[in-house]
Structure formats: structure tokens, C-alpha cells
Write a structure and sequence with these properties.
CATH superfamily of the largest domain: RimM
Helix content: under 10%
Number of helices: 2
Radius of gyration: 19 Å
CATH class of the largest domain: Mainly Beta
Strand content: 35-45%
Order of helices and strands: EEEEEEHEEEEEEEH
Number of strands: 13
CATH topology of the largest domain: Elongation Factor Tu (Ef-tu), domain 3
Length: 182
């Protein structure tokens, strides 16, 4: 099944203090940044106990960042100590996705299969690159290639059975792996 179930995922980075009273600017790693507003606690490492409880969240001026006040962070100096720190969230703290939707962290580790049933590899990450995101897929031989995360290529995401069904454009994978077409 899914290797990420029940763990922590990186959801943002503290960019810098905002003002003098402990507020910090957070750069979200999630395509839906508003999810950060619903997460009740953040951790400062993937496994450690150090955590931050949000008291208030608001829009940052001029961009896609959010401004957070965390419990116990009440001065510029305390906010400055968080600069550059990655924020992690427990996957259990995410609100359940809508029917037919998924979180990117749920895709990591899932097998990627063509319609013929041929295993292409496993998802190792998702990269936002512009108008669509890219799935990074690692082959059984340890090489990587990318597939656009669009309906024409990713036909279905089956979280229950744990796999992605894809229809890559002819030659798309071979070109990336430097293989001759047959």
C-alpha cells in the first residue's frame, strides 16, 4: 500500500519574521496552500517532538505566502530563530480529500502501470513546474523519468488498491531514459 500513510510530510518553510511581535511568513509547499489553515500543529522535523501550534493565520501581502502567529513565539528574535526551518505536518492532521481527489504525498511509493499492465516504476515525488505538475517515477532499475500529471496521461489514481494507471505519449519515457524506440 502507501509508504507515506501515517507519517509526516513537509508542508512549508518559514521564510522570515514579519513585524516585531513574532509573526512569520511561511512559504507553502502544497499546491493548495489553504490546507495549511486547517492543520492544527506543525513539527520542526520529520520525527522529532518539537512542534508549533498556530494561533492565527492570514494572507501575506503580495503573494502566495501565509503569515502565522504560533503559540509561544512572541518576539522578533523568536521568529528569527525559525527562519529557514521546514514545517512538517502529520498526514492524519490533513482534512480528508474530496471524493476522487488526493494529496500528492499519497502518491509517493505507488506503482505506476501502463494500461497493458506493464510496471513502469514507482512514484518518488511530484514537482510543480508551471501549468501542470510532474510525477517523478523511478524505474525498477533505479532510473528516473517524468510524466505530466494531467488526465490525458494519468488515467486513474487508485488509492484503495495502491497504483496509478497511465497512458504516456509514445516515446515520452524512452526519450527521457535515452533509449531507442522499438
Amino acid at each position: 500500500m502507501n509508504s507515506q500513510k501515517g507519517g509526516r510530510v513537509a508542508v512549508g518553510r518559514v521564510a522570515r519574521p514579519h513585524g516585531l511581535k513574532g509573526e512569520v511568513r511561511v512559504q507553502p509547499f502544497l499546491s493548495n496552500r489553504d490546507l495549511l489553515r486547517h492543520i492544527p500543529r506543525f513539527f520542526l522535523s520529520r520525527e522529532g517532538p518539537e512542534r508549533l501550534i498556530p494561533e492565527r493565520v492570514r494572507e501575506a501581502p503580495g503573494g502566495r505566502d501565509l503569515l502565522f502567529f504560533f503559540q509561544g513565539v512572541t518576539s522578533y528574535e523568536e521568529a528569527e530563530a525559525l527562519r529557514g526551518r521546514v514545517l512538517y505536518a502529520e498526514t492524519a492532521d490533513f482534512p480528508p480529500p474530496e471524493e476522487g481527489e488526493f494529496y500528492y504525498f499519497q502518491l509517493e511509493g505507488l506503482p505506476v502501470r501502463e494500461e497493458s499492465g506493464r510496471l513502469l516504476g514507482r512514484v518518488v515525488g511530484v514537482m510543480p513546474v508551471g501549468p501542470y505538475d510532474l510525477l517523478e517515477v523511478e524505474t525498477p532499475e533505479g532510473r528516473s523519468f517524468y510524466l505530466p500529471l494531467v488526465e490525458e496521461v494519468v488515467l486513474s489514481v487508485n488509492l484503495q488498491e495502491g497504483y496509478l494507471l497511465v497512458r504516456p505519449s509514445p516515446g515520452l519515457i524512452e526519450v527521457q531514459l535515452g533509449e531507442d524506440r522499438e
